[in-house]
Write a sequence for this structure.
């Protein structure tokens, strides 16, 4: 018998099955069986075979991936093998985006070409401005982003050619380049401000800041501390393996739709408060608490269940300190040195101090996640809360695209089509209206 296998005895029939166990890069993480192996397990010859039931895919690997490794127990996050801490310290968002796409860090020539190709695609068709103008003045910028990114598929019908490598490459440049433009235009629209066209002499983030905040100056000069802070936050948010929006990107992309339509679906998934909206909830919570002396009462109410959850704490996969939260906390201080402290930071620090020493949170492995500090930083920079998920969507585009291409090129992948356990009525005859 193969030691790397599972023996299953079906007590309905007494039959024993041997199912091989497969491993990924780290043997202690991601040992799996092929779910289709279970289909041979049948109670009778005409039985469909055994399925696994896994709502929310909490224990189902939907793909093999070599993009991002995440070990929630140990608080480890790596892109293509590089620890997030090292990338945050030494890399830039654009370099990290290259790493995610191609699997290796670029050399100087490759990086210069990548920057140039992205810089060449930052402008959007003038009709996109008209499209944004047609949204209400108070349209949520995430809704505007879902609509405009989806609309790009009509401007670039060539993007449907997803089996052509050079064509896919072009859409990757276009999407990474145009996301800041669309995001900034959505923001300017909500403020009633004229749109600012891209300035490709600035860095990726510097240009984004230019399109957001330029008023009448001839040449916008981004504050280097804020530019660096946004760049690092973009690195932290660039990918997070098979989360909800990435799974949406893969699932929609698996039907061979174009990447603009698939990205629009991914943005829609990120829009939800359980995914991209948690940092907004943290700010609301900190405002509700109001002052540091109210923190013990608030913690008490969370523990009793009356005060809701401690937002920005806990994570579906991280059962220790989210490594991104540590970096965010440091960035917060760099940013506050420029903008002045966000008054809510003292409340946040006190919450963290008390929660990390409290058995309720310790025993449930509840630690700060990336959203605990990111909202404070964005608010201090002057972003309205509606822009928070947009600031998540821009960098995550690099991850979505890397995962989308990986999915398309994986010969084992098929169109996403889960099974169900049917629990409805058995077959019955149609009842005419007069007999109901
Ligand atoms: N505050 C207080 N208690 C919590 C919290 C929290 N933030 N999170 C979990 N718990 C408790 C639950 O009440 C439960 O307690 P019990 O065992 O006594 O019933 C236990 O911890 C386990 O909770 P689950 O909901 O089963 O944990 P799960 O892993 O499914 O939840 C989640 C993860 C949704 C992120 C949760 O921790 C949460 O709601 N956190 C606050 C919202 C938040 O910050 N979300 C952002 C996540 S990061 C991101 O998406 C980018």
């Amino acid at each position: 018998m193969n030691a790397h296998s599972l023996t299953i005895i079906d007590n309905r029939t007494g039959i024993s099955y041997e199912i091989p166990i497969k491993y990924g890069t780290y043997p202690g993480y991601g040992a799996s069986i092929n779910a289709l192996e279970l289909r041979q397990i049948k109670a009778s010859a005409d039985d469909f075979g055994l399925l696994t039931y896994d709502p929310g895919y909490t224990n189902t690997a939907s793909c093999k991936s070599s993009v991002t490794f995440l070990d929630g127990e140990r608080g480890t996050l790596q892109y293509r093998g590089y620890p997030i801490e090292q990338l945050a310290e030494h890399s830039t968002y654009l370099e990290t985006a290259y790493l995610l796409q191609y699997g290796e860090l670029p050399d100087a020539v490759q990086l210069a070409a990548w920057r140039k190709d992205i810089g060449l695609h930052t402008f959007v068709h003038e009709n996109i401005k008209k499209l944004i103008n047609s949204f209400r003045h108070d349209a949520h910028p995430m809704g505007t982003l879902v609509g405009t990114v989806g609309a790009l598929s009509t401007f670039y019908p060539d993007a449907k050619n997803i089996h052509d490598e050079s064509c896919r490459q072009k859409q990757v440049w276009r999407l990474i380049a145009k996301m800041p433009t669309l995001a900034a235009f959505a923001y300017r629209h909500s403020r009633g401000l004229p749109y600012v066209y891209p300035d490709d002499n600035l860095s990726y983030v510097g240009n984004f800041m230019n399109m957001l905040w330029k008023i009448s100056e001839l040449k916008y000069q981004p504050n280097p501390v804020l530019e660096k802070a946004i760049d690092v936050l973009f690195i932290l948010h660039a990918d997070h393996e098979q989360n909800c929006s990435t799974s949406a990107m893969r699932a929609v992309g698996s039907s061979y739709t174009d990447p603009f339509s698939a990205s629009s679906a991914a943005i829609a998934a990120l829009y939800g408060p359980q995914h991209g909206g948690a940092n907004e909830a943290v700010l609301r919570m900190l405002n509700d608490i109001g002052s540091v002396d109210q923190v013990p009462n608030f913690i008490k109410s969370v523990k009793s269940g009356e005060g809701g959850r401690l937002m920005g704490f806990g994570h579906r996969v991280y059962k220790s300190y989210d490594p991104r939260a540590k970096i965010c906390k440091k960035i917060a201080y760099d940013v506050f040195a420029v903008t002045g402290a966000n008054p809510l930071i003292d409340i946040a620090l006190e919450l963290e101090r008390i929660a990390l020493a409290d058995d309720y949170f310790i025993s449930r492995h509840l630690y700060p996640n990336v959203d605990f500090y990111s909202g404070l930083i964005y608010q201090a920079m002057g972003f309205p809360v509606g822009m928070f998920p947009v600031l998540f969507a821009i960098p995550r585009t690099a991850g979505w695209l890397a995962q989308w291409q990986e999915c398309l090129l994986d010969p084992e992948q098929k169109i996403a089509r889960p099974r169900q356990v049917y629990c409805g009525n058995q077959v019955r005859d149609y009842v005419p209206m007069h007999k109901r």
User: Anything to note?
Assistant: The chain has one domain: 52-418. Residues 165-191 form the longest helix (27 residues).
